[in-house]
Amino acid sequence: MELLDLSNLRPAKGARRARKRIGRGPGSGTGKTAGKGHKGKGARSGGNTPPGYEGGQMPLQRRLPKRGFRSPNRRRYAIVKIAQLERFESGSIVDADALAAAGVVRRRRPIKLLGDETRLTRALTIKVDKASQSARDQVAAAGGTLEVREDASADDDASPAKGTSKASTDADGARE
Length: 176
What we know:
CATH class of the domain at 78-151: Alpha Beta
Number of helices: 4
Mean pLDDT: 85
Shape: elongated
Order of helices and strands: HEEHEEEHEH
Strand order of the largest sheet: 1-3-5
Low-confidence stretches: 153-159
Distance between the termini: 94 Å
Largest sheet: 3 strands, parallel
Number of strands: 6
């Protein structure tokens, strides 16, 4: 047995199977129709069926009822409940980095704080992207502070009334 090195590496015997050569005569086992059978869509060139095709039966995708709509532009939040904040020391700053370090959230999504049945017993400084009204009340009741980056009520006030645009009204609110 010879010594193996980088100059004479090769796979073990029988590890590499030869490619099946179709359409190469009757002796090959896959001659004449080349494993495609006689006639029909599968025997034609370019004749494979599309994904989900069920041979003429109504496909599952079309048989099932369709409901609702999911916007491709929606913002998905990492949800944090008030009960999950009990693991932090009183007086500490709880932000995305602190929550990720504690294993409460992953870093890639904005964070929304939601209230729940448990009472917050520690005064914390919490920095999140969004918070429910019950969560705001619970943090305030515990003596903590809540810094919210995007305020839903501020977004509503900034948007113009339906049918008008900011550019088309002057200082008095009259249309140009």
